[in-house]
Design goal:
Blueprint (H helix, E strand, L loop, with lengths): L16 H22 L5 H20 L8 H20 L5 H10 L6 H24 L7 H28 L4 H4 L7 H28 L8 E3 L5 E3 L6
Antiparallel strand pairs: 1-2
Helix pairs in contact: 1-2, 1-3, 2-3, 3-5, 5-6, 5-8, 6-8
Length: 239
């Protein structure tokens, strides 16, 4: 049996069976929730616009699971984010019952589920971006890693807000449920601010946990082969 370098990716067979099953269990749960959420959706167009990210992202994760398996922590967070989107798509963000309960309990003027969704929109992508940068770039240990992670999350949030703007321009009043502004003229700014808070919170709370998750077998940095045939870790600079 050929020896592997410290940074090569071992066979998935070397990982515990429970960890190999986790992504499959989460994928099935998310798929089931997505299908169920379509029935009785408050606004079919809003449901489609909110859940299209799940429809695109889930197949990508499944198809890349052998070549580039994700950490268990990231898989769990992505599944949780998918469920947040599915619930928001089913009820529309302004009408989610749990948000109504929080609004009435705290005496607020608006359903806060939209704010929660944008916090998650920063929190989960921060871990995703961090994992991709750690495993495919020379940023491990660099002070630029958290900075670029937050910048990427803000960029994604800005793109999402521009998509909402496009939906408002093309859909008119039909896009109101998707926008979920609830009469707040500063809704776009609040959404991006929530994403920023979510990204910063993820880095502060989960960086060490994420590092431990990435230290497990099967998640070492992939090896790149140079033109001269020499193998170098993708995430390292120098020898």
């Amino acid at each position: 049996m050929a020896a592997t370098t410290p940074y090569s990716v071992p066979s998935p067979a070397g990982t515990p069976a429970s960890r190999r099953r986790l992504p499959a269990v989460l994928a099935v749960a998310v798929t089931a929730a997505l299908v169920v959420s379509r029935f009785g959706a408050a606004d079919p167009t809003t449901w489609l616009l909110e859940t299209v990210w799940v429809m695109v992202g889930l197949p990508l994760v499944v198809l890349s699971r052998v070549r580039f398996p994700l950490s268990g922590l990231l898989c769990g967070l992505l599944a949780a984010h998918a469920l947040v989107l599915v619930v928001g798509g089913h009820y529309t963000y302004a009408e989610v019952p749990a948000g109504d309960w929080v609004r009435d309990w705290l005496g607020w003027d608006r359903n806060p589920y939209d704010r929660f969704g944008h916090l998650v929109q920063g929190f989960v992508p921060a871990v995703l971006v961090r994992e991709l940068l750690l495993r495919t770039s020379p940023l491990r240990g660099s002070r630029w890693l958290p900075v670029l992670t937050v910048c990427a999350c803000l960029a994604f949030s800005a793109v999402f807000e521009m998509l909402e703007w496009l939906a408002a321009v093309t859909g008119g009043e039909a896009a109101d449920a998707f926008l979920g502004t609830q009469g707040d003229v500063w809704d776009t700014q609040w959404d991006m601010f929530c994403a920023l808070i979510g990204a910063l919170s993820a880095l502060l709370l989960l960086s060490r946990v994420h590092d431990r998750a990435l230290a497990r077998p099967g998640l070492e940095w992939p090896v790149r082969r140079s033109r001269a045939g020499e193998e170098t870790p993708a995430g390292r600079v120098g020898p």
